[in-house]
Predict the 3D structure of the following.
Amino acid sequence: MERLQVILAGLGVRGRHWAEVLRRSPRCEVVAYVDPNPAARQRMNEQFGERPGFTTPEEALQAMPTVGAIILANPPIGRKTQIQAAAERHIPMLVEKPLALSVAEAAEMVRIAEQHQTALMVGLNFRYLAVTKAARELLAHSTIGQPEFARFTYERYRDGNRPDLNKYPLKMDQPMLWEQSIHHFDLMRFVYGAEPVLVQCQTWNPSWSMYESDANVAALFTFSNGMIVNYQGTWQSGWSEPHFEWRTDCTGGVIIQKEQFGALHTAAQADKTLTPIELPPHELWITETQGLLDAFVSAVLDHKPLECSGRDHVQSLAMVEACVISSRESRSVSIADVLPQDTM
Ligand SMILES: NC(=O)c1ccc[n+]([C@@H]2O[C@H](COP(=O)([O-])OP(=O)(O)OC[C@H]3O[C@@H](n4cnc5c(N)ncnc54)[C@H](O)[C@@H]3O)[C@@H](O)[C@H]2O)c1
């Protein structure tokens, strides 16, 4: 069986998920580790087997110009030259979300990849959760009718100083939106199969926040099919116990997801109780990342259509950027006004 040779760049929290998923994949093989931090490379060598090490993706790509693919699990800062280096060599890329910290920069990366006809997939692993697939199926085939409005709540006390979490969000601008809400906004587009057109948003930071910029987001989105989604997200909840609920109200009933990784329920309009939807077992951060990797490998080796493309991701990033502008300028923002012409 043909195996995809992969350079793994960025060996932090997410890089370790990737190393585990790649180790288990019968279709992939890691051929190099990349990280400027020697301790991170050393840890990989010890945990996942010795491989050649590099300090930058550009350096690794220059040394291995015929490698099958590169995964960028580094922070979303300064990735343009890395994407350029991979695209010029026609090396397919799987890049962690958010692709960049502005729509303009992400759109530029998409242009670079497309000019060189090189695949650029974004790491939207939550699309590959069984619960996400089941919610889509329910909306497509169930008897509860058409979705009209929804409430998406994500409340978490994220201790940004915890040793097993990345540190850059503590200092970055709008960490909740760019790092976390991006997943939620992408899920809305994916599950409803509709594009956002307008948002009203306010972001703020609670007095106890350990983040320099806003950890709280309240946003009201209007979608192309008329759906209205009321979103509330925080990384600095007043309670350490996390709370997730995504409720979609349809013409004939509701769908309620009660946990980030599962717990899907439905009820018809007149039902007294919710009916749980059976879901397969799930290994946190692994099962859905395996789904993402399988889709990437199918695109690269089997020439299947690319899922989670960079071009598609720009639409979700536009939701984030529209929220930033809406909050800053205290006004509704049209998503079309945030998108560059060639990405609409
Ligand atoms: N999809 C998901 O569920 C998920 C989960 C966590 C993180 N992420 C994303 O993964 C990315 C990394 O996050 P993290 O939590 O692993 O951060 P982290 O800080 O734990 O790790 C990042 C690693 O990248 C290294 N690095 C910095 N610059 C580099 C460069 N130029 N080349 C190679 N490596 C470099 C750092 O030394 C560090 O080891 C971010 O984009 C983040 O949003 C995605």
